[in-house]
Amino acid sequence: MADTQAGYRRSTGTPRGNARRDELLELVTDDLAANGLADFSLRRAARAAGTTHKVLLYHFDGAEDVLAQAVRQLRQRRIDKAALTAIAERPTLAERVAEIWPILIGAESAVLSQAMGLAMQDPVRYADLGREATGQYIPVLKSLCPTEWSDERKTGVSQMILATMRGFLMHRRVTGDEEGPETGLAALVRAIEREEAAGE
Predict the structure, then answer these.
(1) How many CB atoms lie within 10 A of CB 178?
(2) What is the pLDDT of residue 7?
(3) How large is the angle between the packed helices 123-144 and 63-89, nearest 10 degrees?
């Protein structure tokens, strides 16, 4: 993966500059979703965005920054899709978690798993790819919890859901076993049902 350092000043945050940056990031994210992290570089990102690496260096801090921003954007797409589906379709947290699973194993799964692997493999450079994932997921999971729960309880249950589903996703990705995670998900849903039945 290229480690090009920024040689140009970044956008100063003007509305026009921000709009252009967002446009470029959307195109790079589309490429990342389609082609994964392998051989990612600033030049590949520039080709995907229909521009030059110099233009990207004006808006971003280099290849690692572009990658991190694109991973974050891809993850947010997944989160938005999952949250909308869960809230719209089901009334309880257990049912909402069950609705989320098919989205989590969807098109973005492979790339986001690669990003987590990169964070574990090279934490000095890419630890934020893992830390930011938790920061993105937990608030959404808390929003799916019963409104009468305390913030502490929402946080604890959300942490449990996130950690458990991450385990299922990793197992599925590494082993190719689809039945095991489905069985585990059913057990997780039952555990959440018991938590909800326990009341405040």
Answers:
(1) 11
(2) 42
(3) 20
Q: Which residues pair with 5 in a beta bridge?
A: 62
Which CATH number among 1.10.10, 1.10.357, 1.20.120, 3.30.70 corresponds to the domain 71-197?
Answer: 1.10.357
Give, rounded to a whole angstrom, the gap between the first and last alpha carbons of the chain.
49
Tokens 């195109």 belong to residue: 27
- Per residue, the 3-state secondary structure of 96-139, as one string, reads HHHHHHHHHCCCCHHHHHHHHHHHHHCHHHHHHHHHHHHHHHHH
Tally of residues, the chain: 200
Residue 185, pLDDT above cutoff 90: yes
- Tell me what the pLDDT averaged over the chain comes to: 87
Instruction: Tell me the C-alpha distance between 103 and 13, whole Å.
Output: 34
Three-state DSSP state, 145: coil
Within 10 angstroms of residue 174's Cβ, the number of other Cβ atoms is 10
**pLDDT for position 12:** 53
Query: Pick from 73, 53, 75, 76: which is nearest to 63 by CA?
Result: 53
Q: Which residues, other chains included, contact 74 with Cβ-Cβ below 8 Å and sequence gap of 6+?
A: 29, 32, 33, 108, 111, 112
> Domain 15-64 belongs to what architecture?
Orthogonal Bundle (1.10)
